[in-house]
Each structure stands twice: as C-alpha cells, then as structure tokens.
C-alpha cells in the first residue's frame, strides 16, 4: 500500500453512501419485465428517457449529421483529427442559443465565455479547482445531490458546509440559514469561497424563487465570495412558477459592470434536458476571463468528442426541432410527474409540491418506527430488499429531517412506474395492517388490565368473611 498515493487509498470518494449502495443492489438484481419481473426497479437514477423518440426521429430525418457528413460529403477524417480544447465554434453557438431558448430568451450568452466539459460533474469540479484552494469551503443548501460529496471534494480537497434548510418553509433558503452556515465555517476555521446551488433543485424538484436568488446575490456581495448556479435541470420545469436563471437576476439588478458580475458562474449540461448523459456534454459559463482561461486549459483532461459536438450542433441548430422538443418534453414530464404523485397518494404517501426535475421529494416520515436516521435506514433497506425499489434516502442528501426520500420517475416506462406504485402500496398496506393489529392487541391488553385493576379494587372493599360490602 505504501507504493500507492493517499488519493488511491483514502475512503473519501463517497462510494459507501446509501445513494450509491442502492445502485449496487439494483445492478445485482435489475428488474426486467420479461427476464426478471421480480427484480429491483431503479428509482434512484435521475435520467430522462421520456423523449428519446423525438431525438431518434430527428436522426432519421437527418442522416448526414448522424453519418458525419456535410453537404453529402464525409467529414469523418476532419472530426477524427480535430482536438482543439476550445471546442467547435458551431457547437458552442448552438449550445448558448439553446440555453437562451430554455430561459425564454430573457437572457443571452456569449460563446467566448463558455467552456465545454465532459458533463456537469467535470464542470463543477473544474470550478472548484479555479475558485478555491484545498481546505477552503463552499456552502451548499440541504438537501443536496449526494454526488457533490464526490464531485466537489474528492480530488480538489475543498470542504462542503451545509446551509440547513427545513420542511417548515418547503426547504427554501433563508438569510438566517446562510449566516449560520457562514458562521459554522468560521468556527471550523474554514475560509468560505462561495455558495453552490442547484436550480431547479436536485433532490427537491423545485425552482428557486426570485426572493431566494436575490438573497443569494446580496449575500455573496456582502461576503465578497462566489456563487455557482448549477442549472442542469433548467429545461425540465413543467409547471409554474417558471424557471428564473441567476443570469436573469443579475441583469434585472444591472450588475453587468459591478464586481459581483464576475463572481457568478453557471454550470449546464445536456444530460437531463436532452436525456444524453452518455454523451458527456457539460459547460461552464463565467463572466470572469481568468476563470474561463483556466477552465479551458483544464478542460483538456475531459474533452467532449468532436463527433459528439458536430452531431449536437446540427441538432440544436434546428430551431424548430429545439423549440418543439423543449415544449413536448415538458408536457411529458408533467404527465409522468402526475402519475407518480397519484400513485403515491393511493399508497397514502405525500410529497413536496414540485414543478421541475425528474424526481419527487417524498415524505415517508409517518412510516418510520421512530424519528431517527436509524429508522430511516431501516425503512430504506426494507424498500430496497423487500419491496425491491431503489430510492434514495434523505440522509444521503444530507437532509436534516429523517423520513424523506428522492424518487425518480422519468427513467422507466409507464407500466414499470405503475408496477412500482403497486409494490409500494402493498408494502404500506402491510405496515398499516400490522400497526392496526398491534394497536388492537394493545387495546385488548389495556382492557384486560383495566378489568383486573377494577376487580382488585372491588375486592379490597369486600367483607373478608362474607364477600359483601
């Protein structure tokens, strides 16, 4: 072991989180409608499979793009040799225009300020390398995506300090929570370099309000720190209130020529909105030229292939297709979200009201044997091993309240979702029946105890000789 680095032998990757352990159990026994109908259904994966037919239809209509041709002539050799880490200009242009379209064209983006990365994971880590030194900290509102413990910390040495949010106000960020997190970092002798938020939220499935976004801008202005807005789910907002980008807030506040303008950075990816995590397309958008220059150099360690860029530049440049896709995808997400919420309600389970994302933040506190995280893990194990549904426990998302779970709905067929809800309902019904029987049993015991007590009480007043009072 002495021949290996500390990074290779340390246990700080986060792979032992229940979030990842659930995946491992799923992979051992994956559900398949035909081959393994009693297997584990994967509901812990935030993947969008609802609109693949739209993408496949476009590919059928545009064989040149899929075949790496331009005007009928092969450009395979050109793409195979291209390796400039600045990226294809045509793709960067198409990407920033797509980002603007998602935001209702209320904001525009400059191609010279965007850096391509191999997914949002790479984008977030690259920003950590650019903005903080090992041992410095970023504040994150809870609950947050479990992968951030890996993405932000593992290789960079950056620390995460939680901004404690609660169900009392729907887990919204407050001024008090921000200040308490900042003070906690100082008590731990950590220099705070910024705040990172996911908007829309993963795992909550909610968009941040203008009030929260303004609160964040005020906070980073006062503390002279950075703000990273991970907007990877920006195209999944399927109902009101609509999505508001941090860039829109900055423009409304006329921040273009202020110091804070350069301290706000956006992360984006096509993994969720287009459902293309396997294509590994992410981006950093920053108004700070030094950050852009440094991130561009770092991107050579995780480039987006030229073939991927060429194909997607053709797809995203088709404005009619892009607009139709965004609209239709939102409709499908809304319908599928409604089916999950309805299925949960039939099982006697509620969830946080949400308007975005590929998941719901589900409230199972009433199913806990006690108000503890030990009870949450006990319930989670039953759901994974007995009910055979892989969902993510709130503790893996650093939620401060036991009994919340993230449940994904867009990575499976409608029939599979229906089956998962049937399984969950049967499980909840069994718990309810057990609790009812226990309650009845306890009532009978209490009744007998009361009858015995009355008999003893009456006996103490009887005449010891005659049995009469």
Automatic annotation (TrEMBL):
<dbReference type="InterPro" id="IPR015424">
    <property type="entry name" value="PyrdxlP-dep_Trfase"/>
</dbReference>
<comment type="function">
    <text>1-aminocyclopropane-1-carboxylate synthase (ACS) enzymes catalyze the conversion of S-adenosyl-L-methionine (SAM) into 1-aminocyclopropane-1-carboxylate (ACC), a direct precursor of ethylene.</text>
</comment>
<comment type="similarity">
    <text>Belongs to the class-I pyridoxal-phosphate-dependent aminotransferase family.</text>
</comment>
<dbReference type="InterPro" id="IPR050478">
    <property type="entry name" value="Ethylene_sulfur-biosynth"/>
</dbReference>
<keyword id="KW-0949">S-adenosyl-L-methionine</keyword>
<comment type="pathway">
    <text>Alkene biosynthesis; ethylene biosynthesis via S-adenosyl-L-methionine; ethylene from S-adenosyl-L-methionine: step 1/2.</text>
</comment>
<dbReference type="Pfam" id="PF00155">
    <property type="entry name" value="Aminotran_1_2"/>
</dbReference>
<dbReference type="InterPro" id="IPR004839">
    <property type="entry name" value="Aminotransferase_I/II_large"/>
</dbReference>
<keyword id="KW-0456">Lyase</keyword>
<dbReference type="GO" id="GO:0008483">
    <property type="term" value="F:transaminase activity"/>
</dbReference>
<dbReference type="InterPro" id="IPR015422">
    <property type="entry name" value="PyrdxlP-dep_Trfase_small"/>
</dbReference>
<feature type="domain" description="Aminotransferase class I/classII large">
    <location>
        <begin position="41"/>
        <end position="423"/>
    </location>
</feature>
<keyword id="KW-0292">Fruit ripening</keyword>
<dbReference type="GO" id="GO:0016847">
    <property type="term" value="F:1-aminocyclopropane-1-carboxylate synthase activity"/>
</dbReference>
<protein>
    <recommendedName>
        <fullName>1-aminocyclopropane-1-carboxylate synthase</fullName>
        <ecNumber>4.4.1.14</ecNumber>
    </recommendedName>
</protein>
<keyword id="KW-0663">Pyridoxal phosphate</keyword>
<keyword id="KW-0266">Ethylene biosynthesis</keyword>
<dbReference type="InterPro" id="IPR004838">
    <property type="entry name" value="NHTrfase_class1_PyrdxlP-BS"/>
</dbReference>
<dbReference type="GO" id="GO:0009835">
    <property type="term" value="P:fruit ripening"/>
</dbReference>
<dbReference type="GO" id="GO:0009693">
    <property type="term" value="P:ethylene biosynthetic process"/>
</dbReference>
<dbReference type="InterPro" id="IPR015421">
    <property type="entry name" value="PyrdxlP-dep_Trfase_major"/>
</dbReference>
<dbReference type="GO" id="GO:0030170">
    <property type="term" value="F:pyridoxal phosphate binding"/>
</dbReference>
């Amino acid at each position: 072991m002495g021949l290996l680095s500390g990074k290779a032998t340390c246990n700080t990757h986060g792979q032992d989180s229940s979030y990842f352990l659930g995946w491992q159990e799923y992979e051992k026994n994956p559900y398949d409608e035909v081959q393994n109908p009693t297997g584990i259904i994967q509901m812990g994966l935030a993947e969008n499979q609802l609109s693949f037919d739209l993408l496949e239809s476009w590919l059928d209509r545009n064989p040149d793009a899929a075949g790496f041709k331009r005007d009928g002539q092969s450009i395979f050799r050109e793409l195979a040799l291209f390796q400039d880490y600045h990226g294809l200009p045509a793709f960067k242009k198409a990407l920033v225009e797509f980002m603007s379209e998602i935001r209702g064209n209320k904001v525009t983006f400059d191609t010279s300020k965007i850096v391509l990365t191999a997914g949002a994971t790479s984008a977030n880590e690259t920003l950590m390398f650019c903005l903080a030194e090992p041992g410095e900290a970023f504040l994150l509102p809870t609950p947050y995506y479990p992968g951030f413990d890996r993405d932000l910390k593992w290789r960079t040495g950056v620390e995460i300090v939680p901004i404690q949010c609660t169900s009392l106000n729907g887990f919204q960020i407050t001024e008090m929570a921000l200040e308490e997190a900042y003070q906690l970092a100082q008590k731990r002798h950590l220099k705070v370099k910024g705040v990172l938020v996911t908007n829309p939220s993963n795992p909550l499935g909610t968009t941040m309000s203008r009030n929260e976004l303004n609160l964040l801008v005020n906070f980073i202005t006062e503390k002279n720190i950075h703000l990273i807005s991970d907007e990877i789910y920006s195209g999944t907002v399927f109902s009101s209130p609509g999505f508001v980008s941090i860039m829109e807030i900055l423009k409304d506040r006329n921040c273009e020529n202020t110091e804070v303008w350069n301290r706000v950075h956006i992360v984006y990816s096509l993994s969720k909105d287009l459902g293309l995590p396997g294509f590994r397309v992410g981006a950093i958008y920053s108004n700070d030229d030094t950050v852009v220059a440094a991130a561009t150099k770092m991107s050579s360690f995780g480039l987006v292939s030229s073939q991927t860029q060429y194909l997607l530049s053709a797809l995203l440049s088709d404005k009619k297709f892009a607009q139709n896709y965004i609209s239709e995808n939102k409709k499908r997400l809304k319908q599928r979200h409604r089916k999950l919420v309805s299925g949960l309600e039939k099982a006697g389970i509620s969830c946080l009201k949400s308007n975005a994302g590929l998941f719901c933040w589900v409230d199972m506190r009433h199913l806990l044997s006690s108000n503890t995280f030990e009870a949450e893990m006990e319930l989670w194990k039953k759901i994974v091993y007995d009910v055979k549904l892989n969902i993510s426990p709130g503790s893996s998302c650093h939620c401060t309240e036991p009994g919340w779970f993230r449940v994904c709905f867009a990575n499976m067929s409608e029939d599979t979702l229906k089956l998962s809800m049937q399984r969950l309902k049967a499980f909840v019904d069994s718990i309810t029946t057990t609790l009812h029987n226990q309650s009845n049993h306890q009532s009978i015991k209490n009744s007998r105890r009361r009858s015995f007590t009355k008999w003893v009480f009456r006996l103490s007043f009887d005449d010891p000789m005659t049995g009469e009072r």
